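Hey, does this match?
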Amino acid sequence: MNVDDLQWQKAHLGGVLPRFVDEILARGGLETLVEAAREREDWFCAVGAVRGLCAAGQFERAWTVVEPFAAAGWQPAVRTGADVLVRWNRVEQALELAHPGERGQESAEAWRDYAEALVRAGRADEAIDVLSPYLRQGRVLRSLVEMTDGQGCDERVLEVLAPLAEGFRHSQGQRGTRDRREVPPAPTGHLWEWEALPAQARVLERSGRVDEAIRLLGADVAARRYGPENTVEFYVELLARQGRVEELRDLATGSRKTAAASPYLKVLENLGRAEEAEAYLRDCMAGEHPGWSESILMDLLIRQGRFDDAIEAVGHTFDELYDGNLLQAALILLAEQGRPDLAIGLTEGRSPEFLAENETYWLRSNRWWLMGEAGRAREAIAQVEALPADEVDDRELTIAWLLAQDGRVEEAIALLRPLPGRSAANDLAELLIRQDRLAEAVAVIPDVAAQRREQEMEREKAASGSVGGWGGASPVEDSST
C-alpha cells in the first residue's frame, strides 16, 4: 500500500470520485466497491465499502477492507479502521491501532483521532486528558468541542477552555486599542488560543447557559478580541441559532453589517418574514453595498419563485464586462429552480461588447447546457456541430452529454469510450452507473497510477505554454469530499 498514492487520492479526488462511490452504493453495488478497494487500492471505494458493510452489521468484513490501508499507517485510514473496530466492539484493538505512540506518530492530528476513538468507546474524560496538551495546535480545540458534544462532560470541557479563553482575552487587552484593525493578526504564541472564545460560548450554549454565552462572546466582539478569524462571525451565528432577531438587526444595520447580514436574513426567512429580508436588501442596494445585496436579493426572490422580480432587480448587471455581472449566477439559480427556458432567454440579446468578451469564453457553453436541461438537446448538438471542431473545447464531451440528455445514452457511451483522459472516463462512468453497469463503470476509470501520469503530463504541457480550457456543456465541477 503506497501512502503517497493514498495521499494523492485524497488531495486530488483521485481514483473513483466520491460522488460515484455514493451512487454505486445507493444502487446496490457494495461488492463492486469491496472489489475495487482490494484490487485497485482505491481509497474512496474502500470508504464506501466500509460504510455499506457497517450499515449491514458486517464489521468483520469492513475491517478486512480497511485493514491494509490502516496497516500502512496513513492517518485517515487509521481513523476509519479504529472506528470500525469500536463499532465491532473490539475497543482495545481500536485504541491500540489509533494510539500515536504505537506508530511513532506524535502529530496533534494523530492524538486528536486517538481521542475521538476514546470518546466513541465511552471514555470522554480520558479523551479530554489526551487532548489537553495539544489544544494550542491546529484545529484540536475545535475538535475537542465537537467530539464531546452530548457526552455529559461539558463542565469539564469548560474547565479546560477557561484558562485559554482568559489568557487570550488578557493578551488582547495588553495590546491596547490604538490602531487596532478589524481582523488583526494573532499575537505570537496565541495563534489558536483565540478559538477558545467561540468554543467556550458553544459549550455554554449547548449546556443551557445561553445568556452567559451571548454575554461573554458579545463582550469579546465589543472589545474587538479577534484572532485570524473574526469573532463577530461566531457571535452572529450564535444569535442566529437562538433566534435573537433584534440583536441581529442591530448588528446588521450598524457597524457589523458585513458579518451579520447573511445570518440575519436567514433567520428572517426561516421565520417566514421574507418581506423584511427583501426590504433590508433593497435598502442596502441604495447604500454602500449594492453588488453584494443585489446578489442576495436575486437568490431570495428566485427561491420564492418571483423570477421576473429577480431579473428586474439585477438585470442591469447582465451586460457588465467585469466585476458585478450576475448573469451566470442567474442562469444557474434559474436552472436549479427548473426554469432553464427562462435562463436561455437571458443569454440572448446581450450587448455586442459583452458577447465579444464572453460568448466564446463561457456563454455559449452555458447556453448549450441550459438547452440540454430544457429538452432542446438536438438543437444544441446542431449548434455545436456547426462550429469548426477546433473552436469548441471538449467538443466530444459536450456532444456526449447532450446525447444523454436527449435519451440517446448508447450513442453517448459509444462516443466517449475511445476518448483518452480522466474527464472522458468520468463522463463515461457516470452514464454506465445510471444504467446500473456498476463494475463496468469502475473499470473504465483509470487507476491512480494512470491518473497521476496524466496529471504530470498536463503539468508539462502547461509549463511549455500549451494550456487548454474548459468548454463542456455543464458548468458544475465535482466538489465531493
About this structure: Residues 176-190, 467-481 have pLDDT under 50 and may be disordered.
